[in-house]
User: What shape does this take?
Amino acid sequence: MTVKAGTMMSDAILSADQLVFSRKGHRILDKVSVQIRASEITTLIGPNGAGKTSLVRILLGLDEPDAGSIHRLDDLRIAYVPQKVSVPQELPMRVRDLLLLSREVEYAQISEVLKELAVAHLEMKAVQQLSGGELQRVLLARALLKQPQLLVLDEPAQGLDVMGQQALYRTIAGIREQHGCAVLMVSHDLHLVMAQTDNVICLNSHVCCTGHPDDVSEHPEYIKLFGSAIDGLAVYSHHHDHEHDMHGNIIESDAAGCTSTQGCTGHHD
Assistant: This one.
């Protein structure tokens, strides 16, 4: 496997070409090629066992593929947000303590990023007492302290209700706008991320289809994988005149409205 760093010829900051990856005689990734472009939100979807986690681990440099090459921008700063973290109940750790573990930062930086993600009031709260939505936003704050060029999110809305998921995806889109970083997001619910993603990669050991979410949702390979899950559900956008917090509560009116989506669901690793 070849890993190259340097100035990319295109606007891709991270790309993989013809990746092959097997475990115990089972081909998990078969000639997979992907590109992550600067300032774009890319969503990786696929059924259970499609190889999404394996691909992300390889892109992060945690696993080695059997064949293929990876190209990274010189000194690419990557921040990874896992689905969840487990903190022992007997370990006293506040949100501020968790953020201080990431790198050398000043309290002012911590306060600023917590305020940006609307969780400044949680700074002194025990991590074990956070709800699922609160913890995801704290983990996002921890990642942003690294000033990443690429933010990698593994099922960030796992365990949240629909309103909470929509609010979190809008937050992620806002992070891209404010920080200019690229986002690679693993998700199983294309219908919720459609309004907040630029590019979709549909994976099932190989890349089945890739492109704009509207195009992917109508692609024969996508329908073949998720057709039973989308029967009777249309993918569409609608507008409403209010905003929700991470728990789905109405927090403010917005005359311009916000966009949410509805459609098909799939399975996840």
Notes: The CA atoms of residues 30 and 251 lie 46 Å apart. The radius of gyration is 19 Å. Confidence is low (pLDDT under 50) at residues 228-269.
